[in-house]
Design a protein that fits this description.
single chain, mainly alpha, 2 domains
Amino acid sequence: MDALVLAPAAVLGLVVGSFLNVVIHRVPRAESLVRPGSRCPHCGTAIRPRQNVPVLSWLALRGRCAACRAPISARYPLVELATALLFAAVTARIGVAPELPAYLYLTAIAVALTMIDLDVQRLPDAIVKPSYVIGALLLTPAVVAGADWTAALRCLAAMAVLLGFYFVLFVINPNGMGFGDVKLAGLLGLYLGWLGWSAVLIGTFAAFLLGGVAGVALLATGRAGRKTAIPFGPAMLAGALLALFAAGPIAAWYSGLLAPAV
């Protein structure tokens, strides 16, 4: 795809990533995203606009507060860079299409929810619940433009299927899965349903595969025990993004395995 399209998407990702750092820090604490403005968590000094340029300001300040020289975590520019790269990748995958804003929004909340779940092992309702409405509204122009009401019904059906599937898993083993995962599953079903049933299946399977691999790796390295609660939200979100990029090739490969040899 033309760099004239991908470059603005990456820049938008940097800006959104900067805002996501605020979301990641404040939403779990039930703090306002608007007031007060950004401040150094160590000395409380307000961060000036020129000190808040994504990535560049952190590099210019050498990772330290301009006032008290306390270290600023490298996670802030990494979140910004990750969001920029994902925005560019999603734009390359979707193209300039009516559904692009919907999947950029999904990408943004995926970054925020992943970091929050890793930090506090929660998927805040303040992000997940409104995203059902926002996701549906952002996908509506694509439905209208293509008159693809079948895809719209598939979105709703996939949302209901994944909600039901994860709810059953939660009822069977409430200690193995949080109810936040159930609510996130329905949202991911809405988005994966637009891509097709193969994306729903691959995204769901990938979530459990990635979650299992992460759990085994943590156990093997001694960073977790058998009773340690391991956040599943990041695996669900990673599985959904994997399906966005690779559901088509994976489904074609699997169909090839099932096809009889000629």
